[in-house]
Structures are given as C-alpha cells and as structure tokens.
Amino acid sequence: MKIFSAAQLHKADEATTKKHNITQLELMEHAGTQIFNWLHQRMQGAQVPIHIFCGIGNNGGDGLVVGRKLMEAGYNVEMYVANFTDKRSKCFLINYDRVKSSTKKWPKLMMSAEDFPEINPEDILIDALFGIGLNRPPEGWVKKLIQYLNEQKSFKLSIDIPSGLYPDQALEDAEAVIKANHTLTFQSPKLAFFLPETGKFVPYYEVIDIGLDAEYLQKTESIAQLISKQEVQQFYKQREKFSHKGMYGHALIVAGSYGKIGASVLSARAALRSGAGLVTAFVPECGYEVLQASIPEVMVLTDTEDDLITDISYDFEPSVIGVGPGIGTKKETVTALKKLFSETKVPFVIDADALNCIAENESVMKVLPKNSILTPHPGELKRLIGDWTDDYDKLEKTKKFSEEKEVIVLIKGAHSIAVVGKQLYINNTGNPGMATGGSGDVLTGMITGLVAQGYDALLATLFGTYLHGRAGNMVAETKGFEALIASDIIEYIGDAYLDLFAQPEQEPQQQ
Ligand SMILES: NC(=O)C1=CN([C@@H]2O[C@H](COP(=O)(O)OP(=O)(O)OC[C@H]3O[C@@H](n4cnc5c(N)ncnc54)[C@H](OP(=O)(O)O)[C@@H]3O)[C@@H](O)[C@H]2O)[C@@H](O)CC1
Ligand SMILES: [K+]
After folding, report:
1. Which of 42, 209, 373, 455 has its CA 20 to 30 A from that of 255?
2. For the YjeF C-terminal domain, which residue ranges apply (predicted)?
C-alpha cells in the first residue's frame, strides 16, 4: 500500500474534486459519513456520551459531519469547537451552520482553558482538532486542551491523525499530541505511524477509503510503501514439481565465536527452514560438534582457530553468504572479512558484528560489496551512518548511505524499513515479543535462505522480513510476548508460508 505525504494528499483531493466533478464539501460529507458508519456499527445506538473536539480547519469540518450524523441517529453527543483562530475553512463553516440547522444547537465554542468540559472515564472522545494541515506545534490553551484530553481515561478516537502529529515531518513537541487509542485515517496511512518517535501515538489505525482519484494515486510516486500480505503474495515463487535441491541454492552462513555459537545455529536453521537447498555453516573450530549435533541437515566447515573466525575458506561455490551473527570484532576477524569481501563475487547478507567491523574499519567499508543486504538494528546503524537528530533525519542519512554504497539497508525495529536508494519499504508484521536475543540471527538466516533460492535482493529482504514477523506473530498467539524466544520463530516459518494463501475460515452453515 502506498504511503503519501500531506502535500500529495492535498493534491489528490484537488484532482478528485476536479475530475469527478464533486465538491470538497461532498468529499468531507463522504469522509465524515464513513467515520459515522464505523462508530454506528460498533455502538449500535448505545447512549454512551460522545464528546467531539473540532478545530477550525477541514479536520474540524470532518468532526462536525460525524457529530451531526451521530445526533441525527439519536446518539448522546456534545460538540466543541476549539476557536484558536478566526480563519475557519469554508467547509468547516458550512458544516458549522449545518449542525445548527439540523440539531437546533450550536457546538460549544472554546476560547480558553476555562471552557474545558467535564469528561467521565466511560465517555468517548473524538479528536478532530488538527489533521494533516498542522503547520506548527499547538501552543497555549490548545496545547493544554490536548494535555487535558490525554489525562482523561476515556477511549480516544482520532480522525485522520492524532492532533499535534505531522504526517511526514519530525515532531517538535511531544507534549502536544493526542495519545489516541485508535485512529481512522483517510486513504493512506501516514509515514509518522511507522516511525518510533511518532508511531507511539498511533497504536492502532484503520485506513478509510474516501474515494480519492484512483488514477492520480496510482500515477503518483509515493514517499514509502507498506508491505503487507497482499504485496508479499506476489513475491512468492511456487516450487516446480521436477525441481531438485540444486535449484534452491547453497547458502553459506559465516557466524559464531566462542560463547556465541548459538548465533550460527539459529541463522543456519532459519536458512534451511526458509527453503535453501543446502546450507553450510562456517564456524570457529569450537562450534563443530554443537552444529553437527543440533542440526543434522547443515554441513559444517571450521576455521583453523578454535574461538574465532580468522580465515574464511570453503571448497564450493555458495549462491549467497550470510555473515556476521556472533562473530565478534577482533582484529583477525576483521582481516578475514576484508579478504572475504574483496575476493568473493556472490550476494551478501551482512548483519550484527560484521556491520560493526565495517563501521569501525574504513578499509573494510571500502570493499563493502555492492548490492549487499545490510540488516542493522538502530545501534549498528548509528555506527555505520553516524548519529541523527530525528527519525526523518535517520531515513535521509540511510538513503544517502544506501545510494553511495549501492546496498540495501534494512533498519530493524517495530516496523522494519528497507531503504533502497530513495525508496522506503515498511514492514507490517512482528510484535514486541520479538525484541529478544537471536531474533536478528534468525532474520539473517531467512533472508540468506531466500536469496539462495533465487529471490532477488530486494524481494528476499521484504519477503524475509515479512515472514519473520508473521512467524513471530504466530508464536505470540500461543505463547504471548514474554515467552517468545528466537528458536520459536524458526519453528513457525512453515506456518507463515502456509498462511500466505490460507483462506479465512468459513462460518459453519446454519441448518
Ligand atoms: N485529503 C483529503 O482529500 C481530505 C481531507 N479531509 C480532512 O482535511 C484535513 C486537512 O484539513 P486542513 O488542510 O484544513 O487542515 P487542518 O489540519 O484541519 O487544520 C489546520 C488549520 O489549523 C491552522 N493551524 C495549523 N497548525 C496550527 C497550530 N499549531 N495552532 C493553531 N492553528 C494551526 C491552520 O491555519 P493557519 O493558522 O496556519 O492559517 C489551518 O487553518 C485532513 O486531515 C482531513 O481530516 C477530509 O475532509 C476529506 C478529504
Ligand atoms: K485529528
């Protein structure tokens, strides 16, 4: 799904009204009606008090439409207008009048903190103060209003975006943003929903299709893409009946050091479970028995050193090399990596300590193979590209790094983001239970296993990240977040594949 900027959405709005000969007011009525339908379906006429807080722009206009519709349907509604300026939008004003003529009552005007209403914990709050037209942080009594609403225990529903948040710009005042329980957003999720500093204000959201011009949206290059099941279904390569293991590649996993041999076990097993035809693990001598005993399907090559990797040599042509988990950053390992990168012409998946070795040694950075897939967590990313001021600065710096080095960078996080030049692809699976040791080693193995099978670097990155998160979600369904460990993720890779094309269960037919 495409993620558009505020500017693009405003243009889409214009294109829609022009091309389809509908007015902005009709578009607003349609958008507000959809929010009303969403609420009505869930509330079924319940007389829970609903407080709607409207600004004076079009987001406020949406709030007025919702309020009018709810009142017409007999709900217990109170509407407030935060009159922070007199520059009210045209559609707001028309809807303001419509509220009066339909309900015989004006919304309550709020001019200062004295006008804040009393709210009970079981009441519902609807936030229509600011939408994507916010252009500076809320201040004064408006900021106080946001804080007052945040103090309430009531359920908070934001229209389009939690007020105070920019859709695609860094947050300036985290104290002036509605902490929404749920957000109903128009047409496209906003980039802010997926970034750590701003995503915390959007724990749950749903996209409401308000019918913006499909052709315009299709033609417009979005600022990012959200990768969900619908997208990854297209990536999947079906296996052919007359295929053999040689067709699914031979992955080499270079991982582990004394005390961290588990990392190589996790990566190698994950590469196998993802479908690599053959997997060989290259480990320090001390890892030999552990690997042979724990994964009989994996072949093992060992370094001459007992405790660490010092010289990576092998006697076959790997289709891909996954390198880094648990290897440490000792001088000898750095030298081995430099040699590997300069002498080998195969696709690489580079993770963990291999990334640290690159960041700490300019001579290794210089031989970083083009088209590699790098999978840093934020700490490793910082070592690679330097510090950033905010999430957007982080994305810009990563784009630059990706362009300069011609590599794919997967920034791991709650929503992992694959950066390929200027393009951003946002993963939509995973859960907080996956923040556990070894989870990244599993991902490295999975992406390596997919490249081995012939998926190109970008597809392998996106598909692997999706499956990793989906498998983690399936573990969480039975074990919860806390008990989830990295090995569990591997055990659910098969289920994650099956789930790609699983049909939803049919309700049993009534006799
Ligand atoms: N996309 C679509 O197709 C559709 C979009 N729709 C809806 O429109 C929304 C966007 O509406 P919008 O552009 O009128 O902006 P919105 O956020 O309501 O208000 C901004 C107003 O506040 C002001 N202002 C800004 N910052 C401020 C601050 N800190 N403190 C105080 N004032 C501040 C600013 O005025 P300024 O003072 O800068 O002149 C402006 O007047 C969108 O989110 C969605 O809900 C739907 O109707 C359906 C179709
Ligand atoms: K809002």
Report:
1. 455
2. 228-500
pLDDT in tens, 99-145: 999 999 899 999 999 999 999 999 999 999 999 999 999 999 999 99
Is residue 136 part of an annotated ligand binding site? yes
Q: Quick one: CA dihedral 505, 509, 510, 511, positive or negative?
A: negative
Degrees (nearest 5) of the Cα angle 408, 410, 416?
150
pLDDT in tens, 221-277: 999 999 999 999 999 999 888 877 778 999 999 999 999 999 999 999 999 999 999
pLDDT in tens, 291-346: 999 999 999 999 999 999 999 999 999 999 999 999 999 999 999 999 999 999 99
Out of 23, 29, 36, 59, give the residue to mutate to test ligand 1, the one with the largest number of ligand atoms within 8 Å of its CB.
Answer: 59
Measured from the Cα of 91, ligand 1's closest atom is 47
402 is in an annotated binding site: no
| Distance between CA atoms of residues 58 and 64, nearest Å | 10
The residues facing 78 across adjacent strands are 51
CA distance 493 to 496: 5
Contact between 189 and 207 (Cβ < 8 Å): yes
The ranges assigned to domains in the chain are 2-220, 232-500
Supply 314's token pair.
């092998």
Residue 316 CB neighbour total at 10 angstroms: 11
Q: Residue 222 has what DSSP assignment? A: P
- Name residues contacting ligand 1 (CB within 6 A): 9, 13, 27-28, 31, 55, 57-62, 84-85, 87, 89, 130-138, 142, 159-160, 186, 210, 212
Edge-to-edge strand ranges of the sheet holding 408-411: 2-3, 224-227, 423-427, 417-420, 408-411, 373-374, 348-350, 320-323, 250-254, 278-283, 299-302
Atom of ligand 1 nearest to the CA of 164: 29
To the question of whether residue 132 is assigned a binding role by annotation, the answer is yes
CATH superfamily of 2-220: YjeF N-terminal domain (3.40.50.10260)
80 φ, ψ to 5°?
-130, 140
pTM of the model: 0.95
Element housing 103 (H / E): helix 90-103
- Ligand 2 ion: nearby residues, β-carbon < 5 Å: 127, 158-159, 163
Q: Which two tokens stand for residue 355?
A: 């990334």
Q: Whose CA is nearest to atom 26 of ligand 1?
A: 134
112 belongs to an annotated ligand binding site? no
State the CATH architecture for 232-500: 3-Layer(aba) Sandwich (3.40)
Q: How many CB atoms lie within 10 A of CB 26?
A: 14
Nearest-atom number in ligand 1 for the CA of 31 is: 48
pLDDT interval class at 510 (50, 70, 90): low
137 is in an annotated binding site: yes
